[in-house]
Design a protein that fits this description.
With about 325 residues, this protein is α+β, with helices and mostly antiparallel strands. Helices cover about 40% and strands about 15% of the residues. It has two domains: about 10-110, 2-Layer Sandwich (Phosphorylase Kinase, domain 1), CATH 3.30.200; about 120-315, Aminoglycoside 3'-phosphotransferase, Chain: A, domain 2. Helix 5 (about 155-165) packs antiparallel against helix 7, helix 5 packs across helix 11 (about 265-285) and helix 11 (about 265-285) packs antiparallel against helix 12. The protein is globular.
């Protein structure tokens, strides 16, 4: 099973000259070269820029792209709230650019690393699993980041049970037959995800940078727009569907090597997984959003992994 994540982003020379000039003015340096990072699901520039004064990672997107522009603003704000030591690049600045109808640019520390292998396996997968555990080991006070329980979708499965959209029948018959049961589990998800841990909220292979090789490889998380405060198991569990959807091992195999944090409640994981499953199924049945044509296929692949995982966990 493989999910489609490859995309081609605009490169530095393809964005409007006025936008490039505004970024260079903010950098205080001339851009002399760039490397585009084409993974992920959002449109817009995502490049390591080489300048007369060193390197910097910059993301920029037109305001007209709506969600992606808001995500840039949100990421800059939430990264500023992360505790010291969280494995992430440093955020430098956010800039609203008036040129060409409006753009939103954010700059971060450039990490001299590499993307994880695809499919995720071996040392690279181990590094990602350790990263997920490490993020969840940091504690944060209430109010410093949004509560996970307040920002995750917890009604998607109940919506599927009530509306029975035509596309639902294309999924595993077990899920179709048990969607009300899964919706009942989903109702417990808001309480299940409460906690004091830092949560990345969207940890996948394309949201990580690896430094080093072999057993000493270390991972840093990027793309913190969904960061929040909640349960310590979220990022490790959230990583697993994308691993298997991309051709890596199934969730149970990863958890056998990298167990969930001590004290994790199995019922809480089931409730969280019920909500995640409903989200992926529901979203996969929606029309593709502008500029991200591959997103629904990716959500479909993740939904199928979640359904199979949930079915095994519920032993039915």
């Amino acid at each position: 099973m493989a999910s489609v994540t490859t995309r081609r982003r605009p490169t530095w020379d393809q964005i409007p000259p006025e936008v490039r000039a505004a970024v260079e003015q903010r950098l205080g340096a001339r851009v002399t070269g760039w490397t585009s990072h084409d993974g992920g699901h959002s449109p817009g520039l995502a490049s390591t820029l080489r300048t007369d004064d060193g390197t910097v990672f910059v993301k920029a997107v037109p305001v007209s792209h709506g969600y992606s522009a808001r995500a840039n603003r949100q990421e800059a704000a939430r990264m500023s709230a992360l505790p010291t030591g969280v494995p992430a690049p440093r955020a430098h600045w956010l800039q609203e650019i008036d040129a060409d109808g409006g753009w939103v640019a954010v700059a971060f520390e450039a990490i001299d690393g590499r993307a994880p292998t695809t499919p995720l396996a071996g040392d690279d997968l181990d590094a990602l699993a350790r990263l997920a555990r490490e993020i969840g080991s940091y504690q944060i006070a209430s109010g410093e980041l949004p509560e996970l329980a307040d920002q995750l979708p917890f009604t998607e499965t109940s919506g599927l049970a009530a509306d029975r959209p035509a596309g639902l029948a294309t999924y595993d018959p077990w899920f179709v037959q048990n969607v009300e049961r899964v919706a009942d589990l989903e109702e417990q998800a808001p309480e299940a995800v409460r906690g004091n841990a830092v949560v990345h909220g969207d940890l996948r292979g394309d949201n990580a940078v690896l430094v080093g090789d072999g057993g000493s490889v270390r991972a840093l998380a990027v793309d913190w727009a969904q960061a929040g405060r909640g349960c310590a198991f979220h990022d490790l569990c959230g990583l697993l569907p994308s691993v298997h959807a991309g051709g890596g091992p199934p969730p149970e195999d990863v958890l056998a090597r990298h167990p969930l944090p001590p004290g994790t409640d199995d019922d809480a994981v089931d409730a969280w997984l019920a909500a995640l499953t409903g989200y992926f199924v529901s979203q996969s049945l929606e029309p593709a959003p502008p500029g991200v044509p591959h997103l629904r296929g990716n959500q479909r692949a993740n939904a199928e992994v979640c359904i199979a995982w949930l079915r095994r966990r519920l032993r039915s």
